[in-house]
Amino acid sequence: MIINNKNVEELQLHKSNPDYSTKKRQVFIIGSKGIPASYGGFETFVEKLTAYRKSQDITYHVACLSNRNGRFMYNDAKCFNVFVPQIGPAKAVYYDIAALKRCIQYIKERDIEHPIIYILACRIGPFIHHYKKQIEALGGELYVNPDGHEWMRAKWNKAIRKYWKYSEKLMVKHADLLVCDSKNIESYIHEEYSEFHPKTTFIAYGSETSPSTLADDDPNFHKWLEERHLRVNDYYLIVGRFVPENNFETIIREFMKSHSTRSLAIITTANDKFLRDLENRLHFETDPRIKFVGTVYNSELLKKIRENAYGYFHGHSVGGTNPSLLEALGSTKVNLLLDVGFNKEVAEEAALYWNLEDGNLAHLIDEAEKLTSTQIEALGQKAKQRINTAYSWDYIVTEYEKLFLKE
Predict the structure, then answer these.
(1) E strand or H helix at 115, and its extent?
(2) Residue 206 has pLDDT above 70, yes or no
C-alpha cells in the first residue's frame, strides 16, 4: 500500500485539539505491528477497524512498530511509531511495554477522560499489574484480546511456552474486559480462569466476499500460474505460516496417498529446517503434485489464486478465528478443514472436515474429487453466506464501535 500526503501527515498534537473533547472516546490500540497493514491478522484488523469506521465519536490511536519515532495520520487514526531495538524474541514484549508507556504518558499530558487501552495478545502479563494501576488512576479501562493458544505453538521451546501461559493468566486476571474473537476461546477463558471471574465479550474477526479486482485473463495472474506449472481449477491450496501446528505434514502425507491428479500449491513462509525435516519424513519431492510456490503479498492476486483453486486445506489447530480461513471461505468453493472447534465454529455446514487419523484426509480428498458442479456451487454459496452473515468487516466494526461507545 502506498502512503501519500493525503492519508499520512506529521502531527503537532495540542491539548486544544478538538479530538480530545470529552465527547470523543479515545481508544489506544497496542499489539499490532501497525498500519498500513502489510501482513498479519492483527494488522489487518486494525486496518479494517479504522477504514470501515462509522462513528465520529471515536478517536483511534495506533501503535506502530518502526525503526524510527514519529507520528502520522492514517485512516483518520492517530498513529505513533515506536522504535524497538533488535533484541530477539523479547522484541515483542519490549514493543508492547514501550507502546503502553507512551499511551499512558499521552493520556496524562492531555487529561483524556475515560480512555480505553486495547491490547492485542497476552505478551506482557508479568508487567501488566503495574500499568493497570496507572490506567485505573487515569480513569481508563484495559481491554485485552487473548488471541489463540500461543503457549501451545510448537515453535516455542518449553520455557517460552511456560512464559506465554503465565502471561496469559495475568492478562486475564487484570483485564477489565476480554474481547474474544472465537466463542471457543471465550469458553476456554471462563473454564481455565474461573477464579478471576473474567468479564468477556465475543466479537469475531472479519473478512470480505467481494471478488478479486483482477480479471480472469489478468496477465500477472496467468504468469504466476505458468511459472509454477499450475492451471485454473486444477490445484488445491494451502495458505499459512509454515509451522508444525498448522499440520502441513498431515496434509502433504495424505495428499500423497490420495488419487487426485491435481496439484497441491503451498503458499507459505520460509522455514528451511522444517522443510528439510518434512522431506526426510515424507519424501514429497518425489511427488510432482506437491509444489511449494513461495509467498504472495499482493492481496488481490492472492484472492484470485484462492478463487481459482479447486479446494483449500486448512489445518490450523491452535486457537481463535483464523483470518486465512475466513478469506478462504469468502473466495474458495470447496474447503477441507481440520475438525476442531475453532474451525467448525466458523464454517459450520459450509465445509468438509477431516481428522488426524491415518487415511482420513486422503479419503476425503478422493470424495471431494467426485463432487458435482452443483454440489461445488452449493458449498461455495454456503461459505460466502457464512461470511456475509457473521464475519463481514462492516458488521464486525459496528460491533466494536458499540462496545467502545458503551458507557
Answers:
(1) none
(2) yes
